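ok so i was messing around last nite and threw this chain in just to see what happens. nothing serious, just curious
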Amino acid sequence: MEAERQVFGTTSKIIPLAIPRGTEKLCELCQRRAHLQCDNCCVTFYCDAAHQQADWVGIHEKICQLLIPIRTPTLFSLQRTGRIEIQLKKAELIEICRSVAQSKLSEGKHQEALPAAQFCLCCSMDVHGPSTVELVPAYLLLAEANMGLGNITLVTELLSQAEWAVLKSPECGHAVHHRLHRSLGRLHTVTGNLEAALLNFANDIHFASEEYGLHSTVTCNGYFLMANVFAKQGKMPIARSLYSEVANTWHCHLTKLLKTHIQNIQNPDVLLEASYDKAWQVEVDKMFRAMVEFEQNNSRKDSAQIALVTHCLAMLWFLEGDFLKALGFGSTALQASQLIPNHDLTEPIQGLLQLVKSLQTDPHPGPD
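result:
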């Protein structure tokens, strides 16, 4: 009898399999014997309804129809031109899975990220072969998902595979080295090996600066992770100095984004869009909040640093379109800046607060 499940407003059917001998199918998630089949694509199989549900929410809903030409052998797919086209389709799937997994990880949805990260790795192996450097991004996604779930042994194995692939590829670029060392640093932080964590974060910063520049937001996020380790070691002055570097870099970046955004909203012919994706916003928001908490818990609060970071938060949420949060953080930033005579952030913060209030009453102001 056919089973039917309602998933996020979309009906996804799963049907029992009648499998002939010698053609056993395996579960998409766990590789155990499958008893169910996706009724939408008919080329994906599951051991039970729970794994079908997890895969659907994790990634299958987005790639269901894309799997049909890849997993359905035809005369064309066996020819050279067909094989090339299949490889291109798999490359497209890798990018979709990478993007979905990264988005879910940034939002802290580690369990939901697993199917996308797992399929990304399997598809990468199909395209590039085993133990190649092209597999490293997928290994790192899968490691991050498992780290969030506390599967530290598996994380260690995955990062070892990634490290081995990088070691075998001397031509490997700076970006891959930076991401690998960042993941290793996070692993050592979780396991309490803080000196090893600092070493890996130092390497992360080096390779990120080579790839993106010393003052890029990518590089400065490595400083944030290193600062967290120094805070764990009780080395508060070093942690505070690094947090300050992070805040200044991000403040400069967000100020430029804000300036561009203001120019756009003053032009009524421009269609406004989000300045960045939701996952990016969630990750940066967490980082800023952690820095504010660090400063507020410090016995000698630095009002200038609080003003700087909360102004960053106000700009971040304004760019996201959440005026309430922008007002809240902007007000905190203004109070902190006013504790310091002639503070250079007071005027920009007041300007942002005035802009938010004006947009609350007139969301599409034209030029004066």
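not much to say yet. The longest strand covers residues 10-16.
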